């Protein structure tokens, strides 16, 4: 996984978590990243957006669910980074 895609995904998740980024802006950033993403990167980006979209659609007022998803996605991202570095 390219470091620029990892950094973009991590930064976007962090900004969205801090409410510094709307979901639309979050999707826009990730959409731009998809233009140069590999299949594995596109899969991770797609998974991220689907899970957040589902959580926000199901209950937009429950930010706890969104934070849990973001935390899990960050953990998955770290795991992928470690596996590709090894």
Keywords, separated by commas or semicolons:
81% helix, mainly alpha, single chain, 86 residues
Count of the domains: 1
Strand content: under 5%
- Please report the distance between the alpha carbons of the first and last residues: 12 Å
**What is the average of the pLDDT values?**
79
Order of helices and strands: HHHH
| Low-pLDDT regions | none
By helix and strand content, what is the structural category? mainly alpha
Instruction: Tell the overall outline.
Output: globular
Cα gyration radius (Å): 12 Å
Number of helices: 4
Question: How is the main sheet built?
Answer: none
Helicity range:
over 70%
What is the total tally of β strands?
A: 0
Written overview of the protein:
- With 86 residues, the protein is mainly α.
- It is built from 4 helices and no strands.
- It has one domain.
- It has helices spanning 3-17, 23-34, 39-58, 63-85.
- The radius of gyration is 12 Å and the shape is globular.
- The relative contact order is 0.15.
How would you concisely characterize the structure shown here?
With 86 residues, the chain is mostly helical. The chain contains 4 helices and no strands.
Which SSEs are present, and which pair or pack?
Layout: H1 3-17, H2 23-34, H3 39-58, H4 63-85
Helix pairs in contact: 1-2, 1-4, 2-3, 3-4
């Amino acid at each position: 996984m390219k470091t620029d895609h990892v950094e973009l995904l991590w930064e976007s998740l962090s900004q969205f978590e801090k409410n510094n980024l709307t979901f639309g802006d979050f999707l826009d950033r990730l959409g731009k990243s998809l233009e140069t993403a590999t299949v594995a990167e596109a899969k991770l980006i797609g998974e991220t957006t689907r899970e957040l979209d589902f959580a926000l659609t199901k209950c937009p007022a429950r930010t706890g669910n969104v934070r849990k998803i973001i935390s899990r996605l960050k953990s998955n991202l770290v795991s992928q980074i470690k596996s590709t570095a090894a």
